[in-house]
Amino acid sequence: MGMDANWEEAPLVIGGKKLTSRFLLGTGRFPSPAVMQAALDASGAEVITFAVRRVDLDSVEEDSILQHVIHRPYHYLPNTSGARTAEEAVRIARLARAAGLGDWIKVEISGHPLTLLPDPLETLRATSRLAEEGFTVLPYTSDDVILCKRLEEAGAAAVMPGASPIGTGLGLLNPYNLSMIVEEAQVPVIVDAGIGSPKDAAEAMELGASAILANTPVAKAKDPVAMARAFSLAIEAGMLARYAGRIPKKRYASASSDEAGALFRHADESAAASGAAGGLA
């Protein structure tokens, strides 16, 4: 693929909103509000996510989490973490919108206590209902190609497949599935959960992801601010690599020059020719 000269200016569009940053950042687990703010600044993120259950919906402006970001130009993506059914997720989304947190919602419905993988049926039901109610729905899902397509058909503004189980840091366990999800999707594909390092983010972007959502690998890093910056750079590098077009993989080695060892061979041939000429003389 030839590189688009304007690739850097190409916006990410979700639910009609244009975003210049392709890094969405979670707000949990940071060692302090000051570190969180500094990491947000370093990340360049425009969208931040947080669990609605952690927010005081009766006093949003005074909430211990949001008071540190409420006067900054961030777009809120509240999530339904803690919900176990579609009904619970829908109720949480409605409460968040009524509290003034906007109409974007990340549907997150856990279906397994150990892996915390999302419940596919409940996630699909919640996505369909919330889309009908006018929400901009971004469902967190497993990396199932068919399920991601069904979520899109149900009205999801983007699909958010996990790279691996949330919080594991295992990175991208199934690159093939992600590439297929990207190939089939007509909405942005945001890789969410399981990312462990900037390397994982770059790989996902190179495979065609539209954006990356992360929290733990930044918040729990030894230096969250530096890690936030590293993620931002890796996401840009991965996207640039995708546009640049990588070389095809080969089974066997091939030299980067046309004729390996030509310099030495030519020197040997010249010496041999000189010796032969001397013998004739």
Class computed from helices, strands and strand pairing: alpha/beta
Q: Give me the side-by-side strand order of the main sheet.
A: 5-4-3-10-9
Distance between the termini: 60 Å
DSSP helix count?
9
Portion of residues in beta strands equals: 5-15%
Largest sheet: 5 strands, parallel
Mean pLDDT: 86
* Number of DSSP E strands: 10
* Amount of helix: 25-40%
N-to-C series of helices and strands: EEEHEEHEHEHEHEHEHHH
Question: For the CA atoms, what is the radius of gyration?
Answer: 25 Å
Shape by Cα distribution = elongated
Unreliable sequence segments = 1-5
Describe the secondary structure blueprint for this structure.
Layout (H helix, E strand, L loop, with lengths): L11 E3 L2 E3 L3 E4 L6 H11 L3 E5 L23 E5 L6 H13 L5 E4 L12 H13 L3 E6 L3 H9 L6 E2 L13 H10 L5 E3 L5 H9 L4 E4 L1 H4 L4 H21 L17 H19 L1
Parallel strand pairs: 3-4, 3-10, 4-5, 6-7, 7-8, 9-10
Antiparallel strand pairs: 1-2
Can you characterise this structure?
It is built from nine helices and ten strands. It has 281 residues and is α/β, with parallel strands linked by helices. Strand 3, helix 1 (33-43) and strand 4 form a beta-alpha-beta unit. The longest helix is centred in the C-terminal third of the chain and has 21 residues, at 224-244.
